[in-house]
Design a protein that fits this description.
- The protein contains four helices and no strands.
- It has helices at residues 2-90, 98-135, 137-141, 149-152.
- The protein is rod-shaped, with a radius of gyration of 35 Å.
Length: 157
């Protein structure tokens, strides 16, 4: 009879240990879920910011192309006007527009260099954001195909 009571007491103790471990595991899973939800929310914010920066870079690039096209047209007009004056320059006379043309040429070169530098900085910024997103420790844990729309719909609000 005591042996049965002892086995019963041991079994109850083990059952309590299993239930305690189960509750602890459930709490860890819940915490992991909250942590992953927060990481996903942060990733969505970073992606949104990245998209805004990328759009700004594209807009700046389009504006720079428009400016360069316009300035190229201005330069072509000046070069056509200068073709007739080349003969006068060969005779030793420099037309009065040579100075402003050279100033325009230098200004165009400065603008082009500035646009190239801005574009390079923007691309570096985009690359840095991508690398930051790739280096996040949660990025390796999340499987994009593993998420269901119903699981993440509450996070997009």
């Amino acid at each position: 009879r005591t042996r049965v009571s002892q086995v019963e007491a041991d079994s109850c103790g083990r059952l309590e240990d299993v239930e305690r471990a189960f509750r602890e595991d459930r709490a860890r899973v819940a915490e992991t879920g909250r942590s992953c939800s927060e990481a996903l929310r942060l990733a969505k914010e970073q992606l949104s910011s990245f998209r805004l920066r990328l759009q700004q870079v594209q807009d700046d690039g389009a504006e720079a192309r428009d400016q360069l096209t316009w300035l190229g047209g201005q330069l072509s007009d000046l070069q056509r006007a200068g073709a007739g004056a080349a003969a006068a320059a060969a005779a030793g006379q420099l037309p009065e527009w040579v100075g402003p043309l050279r100033a325009l040429e230098f200004e165009l070169k400065e603008l082009l260099a500035s646009q190239v530098e801005d574009s390079a900085n923007a691309l570096r910024s985009v690359a840095q954001v991508v690398e930051e997103l790739r280096s996040e420790p949660w990025a390796e844990q999340i499987e994009p195909s593993g998420f269901q729309a119903s699981e993440t719909s509450h996070l997009s609000a």
